[in-house]
Amino acid sequence: MKITIVENELYLAQSIQNNLSEKLNAKCEIYASYDEAAKSNADIFLVNTNLQGNLKNFILSNKDKIIILLAPYVTHSNVTQPIELGADDYIQKPFSIEELIRKILHLREFYTLKNKTHCFKNFIEYLLEDIEVEIPKNIRFPLLIKTNLKKAADKIVFEIAKKENIPVKIINLNNFSENDLRDEKQIYYCFNIEKNLEHIPLILFKRKTVFLADKDFQNIFNEFIEIEINSPKKIILEDEILSIEEYIKFIITTHQHKFPDTELSKKLGISRKSLWEKRKKYGIFKQK
């Protein structure tokens, strides 16, 4: 952990440095001005808000890092405005080193979770990017999605969660507790409804619940808002052999949104005119 202390009170800066080095095993640097500290590449900045120089530019240049303001007093210009610009928190002088350490550890944990969430979100988007499915408008719950392509339902649930900015909780109806269903502010994504029709808890009908079922599932609940999704693409199984025509149709449907017609026709070994004729023959609409 590398910490930069931007403070012109040398005694205070050295005291912070000694304590953080000892208690957090941190590598600390001390600078007396914003300009001097601008060259630092620290993980955490502890910044006196009452120094000469441009505090605004310093914060904007480091707002992706942890910034804790060391404020001699609380005003709009030295606390509220810097936090609006990207600083994370403040501590008012005089302060205890224990309180400063608590804030550092809390923000470090927050940034770790934030980065993990961003990483998982990007990975899920990558896994689902090839699934082309129309996201229903004006979603109501409980929602029943009938499809033989699970990833299509996954994408719908993921997009709903993004839009409403709430988490998703996976519920296996073969094995769960009603204690898992207490939170109203999340989506419950439920599997294995076919084997548990008689054991679905009533609370799921009052939550933001999405049930996944096969296309041939017979719905017996009037409460369900039902949608059926046809596979947006044919999925090639490992042991499946396609005819040439089936293969060409699959490639066009799957990859036409990735490549321009010139490149796609070249990869298929056909002319652009033949590609147009294939689309017309198979009833494939070119995606824009």
From TrEMBL:
It comes from the Bacteria. InterPro entries: CheY-like_superfamily, Sig_transdc_resp-reg_receiver. One of its GO terms (biological process) is phosphorelay signal transduction system. Residues 2-108 form the Response regulatory domain. This is Response regulatory domain-containing protein.
